[in-house]
Each structure stands twice: as structure tokens, then as C-alpha cells.
Specification:
CATH class of the largest domain: Alpha Beta
Number of strands: 7
Order of helices and strands: HHEEHEEEHEE
CATH architecture of the largest domain: 3-Layer(bab) Sandwich
Shape: globular
Mean pLDDT: 78
Helix content: 40-55%
Number of domains: 2
Strand order of the largest sheet: 3-7-6
Largest sheet: 3 strands, mixed
Number of helices: 4
Low-confidence stretches: 4-31
Radius of gyration: 19 Å
Structural class: alpha+beta
């Protein structure tokens, strides 16, 4: 019984080590808001641009869909952080954003004197 438990823990440790050192895990660990990535989002409805950004960056964007009604986003392309890409998409929209975690972003109406907020 002790031998079976020991073998199980060795197997679990090996699987965890393999997962942590895989290229996918390395990409996920370095892919936070400050990691540089290639972005290519055409000018379009803001809601569609935000959806595309979320897919590209793997960010979870939290916002009321009504705040994007009738708004368009400019084209955003190049090598940049997800934070910079989001700021460019929201420029001139009257909306700001706040990271509440490494991958979770809340988007809301900005105060009258604010530009897209990057806190």
C-alpha cells in the first residue's frame, strides 16, 4: 500500500513538472497584461473588437453590453501588451478599464475627465 501511494505521488509530481515546463504553460505564464503580443484587429463595432481582443489575448472582459452600443473601435495592430491594445480600442469611446487580476478586466463608462484608464 505504501509503495502504491509513493508511485502515485511520483506520477503526479512528474505530470505537474511536465505541464509546468511545456511550451503552452510557458506561454500562459508569460502572457499576462504586460507580455508583448502581436495584435491585428480591424476597425469595427466596439463589441466585436473587444470580443476579438479577448480571443487574441485570453483576457476575460467584464462589461455591460449596452455600453458598447453604437460605438466603433479603431484598427489596432502591431506588437504591444494587451493593456496597450485595450487602451487603443477604447480611445475616444468614453469608456475606461481596470485590471482586477492578471487576466480579468472590467470595462465601464469613464468619468468625464478620464481617458481610457489603465489601473
Amino acid at each position: 500500500m505504501v509503495r502504491a501511494t509513493k508511485n502515485l505521488w511520483v506520477g503526479v509530481a512528474f505530470a505537474a513538472l511536465a505541464a509546468a515546463t511545456s511550451p503552452m504553460a510557458a506561454n500562459a505564464q508569460g502572457a499576462g497584461a504586460e507580455a508583448t503580443l502581436s495584435v491585428s484587429i480591424p476597425a469595427q463595432r466596439l463589441s466585436d473588437a473587444l470580443r476579438q481582443l479577448a480571443e487574441t489575448t485570453h483576457l476575460q472582459l467584464i462589461y455591460d453590453a449596452k455600453i458598447t452600443d453604437g460605438k466603433t473601435a479603431p484598427a489596432v495592430s502591431g506588437a504591444m501588451t494587451s493593456r496597450a491594445a485595450l487602451a487603443q480600442l477604447l480611445a475616444g469611446s468614453g469608456l475606461g478599464f481596470r485590471f482586477s487580476g492578471d487576466r480579468t478586466v472590467t470595462i465601464a463608462a469613464a468619468a468625464p475627465s478620464e481617458t481610457p484608464q489603465q489601473s
